Amino acid sequence: MKHNYLGALHIHSTYSDGSKDVDFIVKQAAKAGLKWIILTDHNTLKPMIHEGYQYGVCVIAGTEITPRYSNHLLAFGIKEEISEEIGERNYIEEVHKQNGICFVAHPDESIHRENKQKPLRWEDWSIDTFDGLEIWNYLTDWTDNYSIKKSKMLQYFNRHKISKGPTKNVLAWWDRLNNSKSDIVPAIGGLDAHSFRIGRHGFLVKISDYYDFFNALNNIVYLNEPLSNNFEKAKEQILCAFKNANCSLINRKISPKINYEFYVDNKEKKTYQGEIAMIGRYSKIIAKLPKKATLRLIKDGVLIYENETKILEFDKLDIGKYRIEVYHKNIPWIFSNPIKVIEE
Length: 344
Fold this sequence. Notes:
- This protein is an alpha+beta fold and about 350 residues long.
- It has 7 helices and 21 strands.
- The protein has helices at about 20-30, 90-95, 140-145, 150-155, 170-180, 210-215, 230-245, and strands at about 5-10, 35-40, 50-55, 55-60, 65, 75, 100-105, 130-135, 185-190, 195-200, 205, 215-225, 245-250, 260-265, 270, 275-280, 285-300, 300-315, 320-330, 330-335, 340-344.
- Strands 1, 2, 3, 4, 12, 13, 14, 15, 16, 17, 18, 19, 20 and 21 form a 14-stranded mixed sheet that branches.
- The longest helix has 13 residues, at about 170-180.
- The radius of gyration is 19 Å and the shape is globular.
- The relative contact order is 0.13.
- Residues about 200-205 have low confidence and may be disordered.
């Protein structure tokens, strides 16, 4: 049996350009029912002084290595700050020298925005030495779809309904990476939470606040043992789950329930995201959703099944990497990490 823990990452505080301090942020995370968060202020590890359990939340500090215009990288599990000026290949290498893990941040921000916010993209998609991709960045999603030609208030009140989820380009890149490597290349979802305001004619509106974001895009980590009460052990468990792709992305604006399932079942064993399953006589992929939605099964980047359903049982397994995407009324809901299937 797996132990599931809901949390959020890619969060900025007053240590960089966030609007609230760490204590406030952790309280909001606890209020939202999160069990862990990862702070990622720009080019600093100062939030490490807040690491530990606070208000029942496991608080981990990483960083977002942030060159001025492009090539941002989320780094977790490092103890020394890394200069953003040394170039992306070098700071990926520096993360690994510190036994950390790193994920490309918001790699595919739109160059066709209807607003003046400059896209911050990952420029060289031939690089593959990072550990994984932030395939869905919630703030990027909103910013890409925010138009200065439309009502600010209307877009604010509909901000979660206009979400598009990961772009086709970044999903294709993720699949290519998984097709080119034996190991599973993990994906994560980041909030990029800052909590800032927009205004017009002297009227200010929060377009996002921390509590609101914490009730939106989350990550679920799947552990073989309960999350430890010892912080250092718990931190290791969570970061290992990300490194090994034992995690999934879920949009809680669709449903507060997180009890969806995705695994390979061969009657003797259930194999979950980030793990390796062997094809047996009775092997099948199982997916179960809390409510009916459009469920897509993707093998090695190719769509092999799509239906409006709550339950999937797929028994035509072949070797490859399988993942699911789920949309509810065209709004992105769930993105799993792959399960690798091999021959006995």
